[in-house]
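Late entry, evening session. Most of the bench is empty. Finally got around to the prediction I had been postponing all week. Sequence below, unchanged from the version circulated by S.P.
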Amino acid sequence: MKKVPIAVIGNGNISPIYLENLTRVFNEKIYVKGVCDLIPERAKDAYDKFSIPVIYDTMYDAFNDEEIEIIVNLTRPEEHFGVAIEALKAGKNTHSEKPMSVNRQDALSLLELSEEKRLLLGVAPDTFLGAGIQTCREILDSGEIGEPIGAAAFMTCHGHESWHPDPEFYYAKGGGPMLDMGPYYVTALISLLGPVKRLCGISKKSFSNRTITSEKKYGKIIPVDTDTHIAGIMEFENTATGTIITSFDVWKADNPRIEIYGTKGSMQVPDPNGFGGPVKISKLGGDWQEVPITRPYSENSRGLGVWDMANALRLQTPHRTSGKLAYHVLDIMLGFTDSSDGGEFYKLQSTCSRPAALPL
């Protein structure tokens, strides 16, 4: 299979693990031709460390490179849409970090343009393709814990200002725990249980400002302009129900990341922000038992979704981290706040296919 040439736009905190994997793990099928960043020093660091052939002065230089087939968009969340739409306009298949946008209108524009131009549109996370959740998928599909009844998911912490060097965007409009961490949890749930039919939610902001305690901006006070504690209930199309809490307001908690409840038992799903295990099941109320991880990619495999897109391009098959999946995830996440604001259930305006399991 001829390698798929790609360009990476944005060389910030997340890019090193992508470049590590795309140049050294998935390089049988992918060729990283170039990088680009608004801060030239970042692009130069990536160029030097990973032996990248080209540094593009602007993203448009990458878009105009006829050899490039996929643009990997690793910019900040508020920039995802702007980069992706321009890449699609230039005729490039595009894979972006999550979320695909911070509003439905822009996300729909991406979907419509990609379909009009017959281009692939992909969006992170790809962690659900990792060994842990794919092992859970295998267990669930085998019927080992019976028919799904429900699920519960929890992402609770006290925010990122204690460690992140530039945490302001987490508390700006378009930020918050649901849009930041929700994509991992909601995508994992859809990969296991399928799409959501309707939902309700309550969301709130518990603190009006935050004080940065990480070293770079220690002591800076930042305003909170988004809801930071969101609780929701989902009804899946397969009739299972799910609950989710994402919060930047909780000092300490001891909840599971995700649990799935079936007619014959229960399953503990590993952290959806990672690729590995552990996976535990309990049958008919028995003790929790850790089960073997049966699928590949236990290590940090960010870029796996790009690899899957490259396969889809060459083999003309569907890819798993699709724009339709990402839009359904965004519709769900925004729906919790919409429900809270409107005081009623939100009926999903979108749906998607349950992504196919990753073959061995």
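Two things to note before I forget:
Residues 275 and 300 are 6 Å apart (CA to CA).
The first strand starts at residue 4 and ends at 9.
Will write this up properly tomorrow.
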